[in-house]
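Before the break, one more example. Copy the sequence into your notebook; we will annotate it together after we see the structure.
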Amino acid sequence: MRFFAAPVERLIEQFERLPGIGHKTAQRLAFHLLSLPKEEAAEFAAAIMDAKNTVFTCKICQNLTDSEICPICSNPARDQSVVCVVTDPKDVVALERTREYNGLYHVLHGAISPLNHIGPDDLKIRELILRASENDFTEIIMATNPDTEGEATAMYISRLLKPFDVKITRLAYGVPVGGHLEYADEVTLSRALEGRREI
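Here is what the structure looks like once it is written out:
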């Protein structure tokens, strides 16, 4: 039995397709959108289409941009000898917020996941290997997620990069700030011990 008009149902279904959006949230978003004045709803729709039509990947780092080369790659003040390899464009944002990293990036657009039928050829690994062969990088930081797929991706890429005589590092893992040791799992604690440093 349908509770809403067909166009409303379709709108709710579209919102449900977004990651992290359940049925109730999709309903709230749909009804909020329907309550907007027509001009605001049109602006919202136009913003989606504008982003879809004008945003693509940087030809160097594969990050999302609206120009041929993204602002990070085109910034001469960035350290051109270090590349941080991340899974998704949102990881670039997370690292940039720290204001601690001043090198370049390479966005893979996913991680190797055989269960989801995602192999190395589905990612931007070939482009990274090409960059490594054409540049004199001193360090490549593997900043993929600390899960099974992220670890497998990092190991696979590091093996491919071995012939380039570049230092390959991995982000340190450990107990989060504000966390308690009693709640940390064994893998997190062992990584924290491995990555300990002098104070």
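The domain at 76-171 is CATH 3.40.1360.10 (Dna Topoisomerase Vi A Subunit; Chain: A, domain 2). The longest helix spans residues 38-54. Try to locate both features in your own notes.
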